[in-house]
Design goal:
single chain, 262 residues, mainly alpha, two-stranded parallel sheet, 12 helices, 2 strands, 73% helix, 2% strand
Length: 262
Amino acid sequence: MTDPHSNKPSAYKGGWIQDFMVGLIFLTRLPIQPGFTFDMTALKSACRAFALIGLIVGGVTGTVYLLAAYMGLPLHVSAILAIAAQIVVTGALHEDAIGDVVDGFGGGTDKQKKLAIMRDSRVGTYAVVALILVIGLKISVLGSMPDPLLGFAFIVVAASLSRGLITWALYLLPAARVDGLGHGAGRPDMMAPLASTVICVLVAIFILGPQLGAIALMAGIVGASLMGMIAKRQIGGQTGDVLGAIQQISEVFILIACLAAI
C-alpha cells in the first residue's frame, strides 16, 4: 500500500500478498503496479509464491486450449494457440532461458565461455533445436489428449509445479555468477521451498487426484533435478537462465509423464 501522506511507494515487507505481486512481475508480463518498492533480493521471499503464479499462467493457457477445443478446432491447433497464449503472458521468459542455456552448455568449452554465451543475445543452432523440441513436445502431448478437460488439468498442474520447483533450485544450487538474477536473488530461507512444496502437493492432488498427482510431482522433481545436476556440472550452479530452463524441462517431464499414465 502507498502512504496516504506521501507520493512515494511504500517499502517491500515480504508478506504473501506482496510476494505474490513480486512473483507476477518477475514471471509474467502482466501490467502490475505494485505500489511498493523492491529489488532482486525480494525473490528470496517471493519465490514461495511461484507455484501460485503458475496457477495463473496455467489457467490462462488452459482456458485458451479449452475454448479452442470447444469451438471445434483440432486439439493440435488448440495446443498451438494455448502455448502461444502462454508465451504472450510470460514474454517467452523461460523459453529464452532454455535457449540460452543450451547454447552456452553446448557451445562453450569452459565455465566462463559458457556463461558468456548464455548472456549473448544472439540465438545459436542449439537454442533453435532445443526450442523446437520443447515446444513441439508440449504441443504433441496436448494434441494427444483423449479429453480437452484432462488437457486443461495437465496444463494447469504442469505450469504450477514447474514454477514451484524453481524455489528449490534457488535454495539448493549456488549462484554461478557474481551478478545477475540468480546471484541477486540470494538463497531463500528453508521455509520458502517448504511452503512452495505444500502448494505444489495441494495443487497436484486437488486437480489430478492422489495417484496422477504423485506422478506429476515425481516427474517434475526428476526433470528439475536432472537440469540442476547438469547446470552444477557445467557452470557450478544456477543463473536466471538455468532457473528458466529448470521450469521448461520439468514442465515437459510432467506433461509427458501424465500422458503416459492415463
